[in-house]
Amino acid sequence: MDLLVTYSILSLMKERLGNVRSLIEVFQELCESILAEDDFRKTGKGVLEDLKKGFMDRFMINIPNPTLKAILKGIQRSYSMSFELFSDFSYSFDNVPLRSLKRDIEEENRSIQELKDMYRELCREKGLQEVLGIDIFVEANKRELVSYLNNQEYQFPDRPEFTVIKVLCTVPDYRKRIERLVLGSLISSYVDLDIETVLMPAMILQKGRKLPRLLCLGNSTKGKRVRDRNM
Q1: pTM for this one?
Q2: Residue 99 falls within a domain, yes or no?
């Protein structure tokens, strides 16, 4: 799966959960969706490496073992006797109401593909041939994107990719998609930490703090075309 889709899914899960104590809760949603798939549900049991591979195959995220153990502990707390977790972190489960993210993934995949297509079209219109793909661009410029999304008076570096992003952000629906990508990328960057115990920034864990547009996404207007009239 496209890593941008993973970022969008992480952000979507954070939106649905609202305030969280730990980002474990966000990654738990992804883990449950893996367990809900037929190849996992049919066996009803597995080991840590199965889920580690599941995260990589389905979401392109390499989850460290300590983080994965914390996720499994969270699932065990959520489902009690229906989900049994052993001392070696192998597990078994039966009749657990795990929620699949298949439909969400399909919708976000379409959304991201449309964003990519529009990004490429705007780049062509500007005569930009050698330009970073939006996936590489988001990953490499999180700090600048967060600054701009929080304050549109922020001056982007004088580079053509930033100009294209500014044009995209004039349309609420595309802006929301970019916000999701940035927030999802920020969330994923904590996966290498011990996110069971680390004090996470309040702007990511809670609504209503700084980074408001990234955490409190409003309604969007779909289907509106982007046109650069001011450049």
Answers
A1: 0.81
A2: yes
